[in-house]
Specification:
The protein has a five-stranded mixed β-barrel. It has one domain. By secondary structure, it is of the alpha+beta class. The termini are far apart. It has three helices and five strands. Strand 2 and strand 3 form a beta hairpin. The longest helix has 26 residues.
Length: about 120
Protein backbone atom coordinates (compact mmCIF):
# COMPACT_ATOMS: atom_id res chain seq x y z
CA UNK A 1 0.00 0.00 0.00
CA UNK A 2 2.86 2.37 0.81
CA UNK A 3 4.38 1.79 -2.63
CA UNK A 4 1.15 2.79 -4.36
CA UNK A 5 0.87 5.85 -2.15
CA UNK A 6 4.46 6.89 -2.95
CA UNK A 7 3.93 6.36 -6.68
CA UNK A 8 0.76 8.43 -6.59
CA UNK A 9 2.56 11.21 -4.67
CA UNK A 10 5.43 11.24 -7.18
CA UNK A 11 2.97 11.28 -10.06
CA UNK A 12 1.12 14.30 -8.63
CA UNK A 13 4.40 16.15 -7.97
CA UNK A 14 5.50 15.39 -11.52
CA UNK A 15 2.25 16.80 -12.92
CA UNK A 16 2.65 19.94 -10.84
CA UNK A 17 6.14 20.48 -12.27
CA UNK A 18 5.14 19.87 -15.89
CA UNK A 19 1.82 21.75 -15.97
CA UNK A 20 3.23 25.28 -15.47
CA UNK A 21 5.82 24.68 -18.18
CA UNK A 22 3.26 23.54 -20.74
CA UNK A 23 0.92 26.48 -20.06
CA UNK A 24 3.81 28.93 -20.51
CA UNK A 25 4.62 27.33 -23.85
CA UNK A 26 1.00 27.69 -24.99
CA UNK A 27 0.82 31.37 -24.05
CA UNK A 28 4.02 32.38 -25.83
CA UNK A 29 3.28 35.11 -28.35
CA UNK A 30 4.65 34.83 -31.86
CA UNK A 31 7.82 36.83 -32.39
CA UNK A 32 7.56 40.27 -33.95
CA UNK A 33 8.26 40.39 -37.66
CA UNK A 34 9.02 43.21 -40.05
CA UNK A 35 7.27 43.15 -43.41
CA UNK A 36 7.85 45.47 -46.38
CA UNK A 37 5.04 46.34 -48.76
CA UNK A 38 2.56 48.98 -49.86
CA UNK A 39 -0.44 50.25 -47.93
CA UNK A 40 -3.30 49.37 -50.23
CA UNK A 41 -6.96 48.48 -49.83
CA UNK A 42 -8.72 45.13 -49.79
CA UNK A 43 -10.50 45.85 -53.11
CA UNK A 44 -7.35 46.48 -55.15
CA UNK A 45 -4.87 44.39 -53.16
CA UNK A 46 -1.61 43.95 -55.05
CA UNK A 47 -2.42 46.18 -58.04
CA UNK A 48 -4.59 49.27 -58.44
CA UNK A 49 -6.92 49.53 -61.40
CA UNK A 50 -5.92 51.77 -64.30
CA UNK A 51 -7.56 55.18 -64.43
CA UNK A 52 -8.04 55.50 -60.67
CA UNK A 53 -5.36 58.13 -60.16
CA UNK A 54 -2.19 57.58 -58.20
CA UNK A 55 -1.87 54.82 -55.59
CA UNK A 56 -2.71 57.13 -52.69
CA UNK A 57 -5.89 58.51 -54.30
CA UNK A 58 -7.08 55.06 -55.33
CA UNK A 59 -6.40 53.56 -51.90
CA UNK A 60 -8.20 56.35 -50.04
CA UNK A 61 -11.18 56.16 -52.40
CA UNK A 62 -11.49 52.37 -52.26
CA UNK A 63 -10.98 52.09 -48.51
CA UNK A 64 -14.20 54.03 -47.90
CA UNK A 65 -16.01 50.74 -48.55
CA UNK A 66 -13.23 48.46 -47.33
CA UNK A 67 -10.10 48.18 -45.26
CA UNK A 68 -6.40 48.96 -45.50
CA UNK A 69 -4.08 46.03 -46.25
CA UNK A 70 -0.36 45.50 -46.69
CA UNK A 71 0.38 44.47 -50.27
CA UNK A 72 3.69 42.59 -50.45
CA UNK A 73 4.17 42.81 -54.21
CA UNK A 74 7.55 41.04 -54.16
CA UNK A 75 6.06 37.87 -52.65
CA UNK A 76 2.54 38.40 -54.08
CA UNK A 77 0.86 38.32 -50.66
CA UNK A 78 -1.77 40.52 -49.06
CA UNK A 79 -1.93 40.88 -45.27
CA UNK A 80 -4.83 42.27 -43.25
CA UNK A 81 -4.17 44.89 -40.57
CA UNK A 82 -5.65 44.64 -37.08
CA UNK A 83 -7.62 47.57 -35.65
CA UNK A 84 -4.45 49.45 -34.63
CA UNK A 85 -3.01 48.88 -38.10
CA UNK A 86 -6.16 50.25 -39.73
CA UNK A 87 -5.79 53.47 -37.75
CA UNK A 88 -2.06 53.86 -38.44
CA UNK A 89 -2.23 52.92 -42.14
CA UNK A 90 -4.28 55.93 -43.30
CA UNK A 91 -1.34 58.36 -43.23
CA UNK A 92 0.68 55.96 -45.41
CA UNK A 93 -1.99 55.21 -48.05
CA UNK A 94 -0.35 54.15 -51.32
CA UNK A 95 3.17 54.36 -49.90
CA UNK A 96 5.87 51.74 -49.49
CA UNK A 97 6.17 50.96 -45.78
CA UNK A 98 7.91 48.83 -43.20
CA UNK A 99 5.40 47.25 -40.82
CA UNK A 100 6.44 45.73 -37.51
CA UNK A 101 4.09 43.44 -35.63
CA UNK A 102 3.01 39.93 -34.84
CA UNK A 103 1.75 37.79 -37.69
CA UNK A 104 -1.24 35.56 -37.01
CA UNK A 105 -2.21 33.80 -40.22
CA UNK A 106 -2.71 36.59 -42.75
CA UNK A 107 -3.37 39.28 -40.12
CA UNK A 108 -0.71 41.60 -38.72
CA UNK A 109 -1.11 42.82 -35.14
CA UNK A 110 0.66 46.12 -35.83
CA UNK A 111 3.05 47.78 -33.41
CA UNK A 112 4.59 50.25 -35.88
CA UNK A 113 4.34 51.45 -39.48
CA UNK A 114 6.97 53.68 -41.06
CA UNK A 115 7.67 54.87 -44.60
CA UNK A 116 10.53 53.22 -46.46
CA UNK A 117 12.10 53.38 -49.91
Amino acid sequence: MRTVSRMLTLFVIGLMLVAPTSSVAQKTKPAEKTLIGYVSDNHCGLKHMAGMGDDKSCTLMCVKDGKFVLADRDHKRVYQFDKTGQEKAREFAGQKVKVTGRLSGKTIKVTAIEATT
